Amino acid sequence: MRYISTRGRLETKTSAQAILQGLAKDKGLFVPVEIPKFHKDLSYMKGMDYKEIALEVLSKYLTDYTEEELKDCIQKAYDEKFEESEIVPIANKGGAFFLELYHGKTAAFKDMALSILPHLLTKAMKKENEDKKIVILAATSGDTGKAALEGFADVDNTEIIVFFPEDGVSEIQKQQMVTQAGGNTHVFGIKGNFDDAQTGVKKIFNDNKLNEDFEKKGIKLSSANSINPGRLIPQIVYYVYAYVKLLERGEIQNGESINVAVPTGNFGNILSAYYAKHMGVPINKLICASNKNKVLTDFINTGIYDTKREFYVTNSPSMDILISSNLERLLYHLSGQNDAVIDKLMDDLEREKRYVVDDTVRQSLHSFYAGYAEEDETLSTIKDMYLEHGYLMDTHTAVGYHVYKRYLAETGDKTKTVIASTASPYKFTNSVMQAILPEARGNEFELLNKMNEITGVRIPKGLKDIDKLPVRHKKVIQKEEMKSTIEEIL
Ligand SMILES: *Cc1c(COP(=O)(O)O)cnc(C)c1O
Q1: Would the pTM count as exceeding 0.90?
Q2: What is the pLDDT of residues 13-45, one digit of tens each?
Q3: Nearest partner of 262 among 250, 252, 271, judged by Cα
Q4: Measuring CA to CA, which residue among 391, 393, 397 is closest to residue 318?
Q5: Ligand 1 binding pocket includes 108 (Cβ within 6 Å)
């Protein structure tokens, strides 16, 4: 399997090279030259556990890794760090199947890929005889940052630098990041939003002069964001896993289609579901759920991607994004791998902050359904689910479920549906408590314990007593200072 840039100007790479580099040198993103297929129906995986299914999927994409290498990465990634032995439990509540992706160390779905990425990367360094220090840059809307820090803390020959929007994450998300231990970890709040952080990081990757200077000093930059194919590929696993488990439980018949609903920000998670579908997992609709920053809803419904709009800080902050990077990959596939089309669209985006796709691409967007949730709809969805079924969702998952319910009401489509449940409700305690017990008072850390008393839902290990940890990273910078900050550290 080779990887090519969506802007098409460069030769193809192996997966190890693409993972090491993170972002292509022509500003494009790496995609597999073709999406590999399961050549038999998925029932052969019945009885396999998460790790075994991970091997089935990863070995189709990471063909330059040996089976032993992949097994080793998988073993190290999906171990006791996960608080549930199944790794990803599936809860059948309120007429949908919740794929709980948040039982890893940092209590959000980012752990699914970032638990394995450091192992894939260190193996890639060996394979490519890379003797430079790898510096991971990450922009985060709240969850990638902590998951990447945990994954890379004290990993030999690496350094990790994270930028988060100072006023755009929950108190708990922030506390998780600023208390991070590890001799190679660096964390900065920026005065700006996630888009500013991600644009800043991409600029640094595309700064040839800077990268040459770093090369001379024995430093190579890479990415922990979903622009790195090493993030996307491990995320395909859990959609295959979900299908196999529903089959095993007799919830669906072999070959029967399911829908998948994904609360979406940077379009990484739902793109992984798209890959799963094209590998042969019977998926009918991909339901793309947004919050009030509904640029993707409008795009899927009109073919016009327009970022010239107000930016909102919402109660689902990990999806407060207007520039969804991974959409570039989808457009590349939908346009028949046409890099000239992508070049033009991304150029329009950079210059005019918007683009319009042609009719062919627009037609092919019909495999998606898109909708969004207002702030109060998110909260009432959490409340209703809790009161009616005793099941506690976080705000992002609630956005996904809300949009699924709207889809159901509009279409009457009774296809069994899997909701990507992306975070523990304890990461967004303020909002979840506001939904289920608005009269409760206290700061986010006090509410955490109160929520536990009321609901009996276990607090994730990584969040217990997090307010008592020493703050190690205190710096807040302007968004223009990202480059100089990195130069200073390195
Ligand atoms: C990152 C994140 C999302 C959005 O995922 P994308 O891959 O960026 O679309 C949704 N929910 C939570 C909790 C997240 O951390």
Answers
A1: yes
A2: 999 999 999 999 999 999 999 999 998 899 999
A3: 271
A4: 397
A5: yes
